[in-house]
Amino acid sequence: MSLEAKQAPRSLAWTCVAPRPLITLLDGPLGTELAARGVPTPLPEWSAAALRSSPEIVAAIHRDYAAAGATVHVANTFRTRRRTCPLDWELLARRAVALARSAVPAAQVVAGSLAPLEDCYRPDLSPADPEPEHRELAEVLVDAGCDLLLVETMPHGGEALAALAAARATGVPVWVAFTGGPEGKLMAPAAMGALARQAVAAGAAAVLVNCVAADRTLPFVEAMRGCGVPVGAYANAGAPDAAMGWRPLALAADRYLELAAGWVAAGASILGGCCGTGIPHVKALADRYRS
């Protein structure tokens, strides 16, 4: 038989193409988008203030992230806690969940945010016994309708694990996101990797890194991979700000996408945006990774 006879016709030939990774898409920040739309976010309440002054804009931001391609939406509960909003924290937390739920498709996930009780960049201020306060908010968030709890922007391992325990007690899945701070110096990658494994042992359904500059995020993803649960990253695109924590410098969405491709190559399967990112960054991720 000739070589030509042995070869399959071109019409029957196939090419092996690497499959596109399955990525879960988080939304982006509320605070950055509120500021971009002219909504005041005064400290200490920060984005929670918009739940009183501009709930319709909070809902619009959630709708815009859903339209951009996000499928996991974090309610605006980052600062809706008793020590920050003592008079109406529960009302605001429930309103935040209701706004997110009403603004996104019914089949998509609404997560409640459990953030550090004091400061994201000051682990030295973490309370000695943070679990009761985290449990209080976690129970309200689940009762209000959250599908998932996101313990996020945690620079202190003890508080992160306490918040995880409080959230796990509600019975819904819990993701835990650690931060190394603006310059990645509050927590070394190796330390974050070790904490991520502790969190997995304590029941975390996913572990992530967030609120680190996008170009400094990769080592943290690398340190967490192989821990037995999905790993994710949602990074900052801007520069530190003494008052508000982070100010946007408009890191281009295509550059953010390039950096995110490195996180995916290192094992990340959950992507989103943190401070300084916005709708274009989430859309770029969705256009690249959405099935």
Give the percentage of residues in beta strands: 15-25%
CATH topology: TIM Barrel
Oligomeric grouping of the chains:
single chain
What shape does the CA trace take? globular
Q: Main β-sheet, in a few words?
A: 8 strands, parallel
Give the strand order of the largest sheet, numbering strands 1, 2, ... along the chain.
1-10-7-6-5-4-3-2
How many domain modules? 1
Helix and strand run: HEHHHEHEHEHEHEHEEEHEH
**Helix residue percentage:** 25-40%
Radius of gyration: 20 Å
Q: How many helical elements?
A: 11
Overall residue-averaged pLDDT value: 90
Considering the protein shown, what is the CATH homologous superfamily? Answer: Homocysteine-binding-like domain
What CATH architecture do you see?
A: Alpha-Beta Barrel
Structural class: alpha/beta
Instruction: Identify the CATH class.
Output: Alpha Beta
User: What are the low-pLDDT stretches, counting only 5+ consecutive residues below 50?
Assistant: 1-18, 241-246
Distance between the amino and carboxyl termini: 44 Å
| Total E-strand runs | 10
Helices and strands, with pairings:
Blueprint: H1 3-6, E1 24-25, H2 30-36, H3 50-53, H4 55-68, E2 72-74, H5 89-103, E3 109-114, H6 131-144, E4 148-154, H7 157-168, E5 174-178, H8 189-201, E6 206-213, H9 218-224, E7 231-236, E8 238-241, E9 245-248, H10 253-265, E10 268-273, H11 279-289
Parallel strand pairs: 1-10, 2-3, 3-4, 4-5, 5-6, 6-7, 7-10
Antiparallel strand pairs: 8-9
Helix pairs in contact: 4-5, 4-11, 5-6, 6-7, 8-9, 10-11
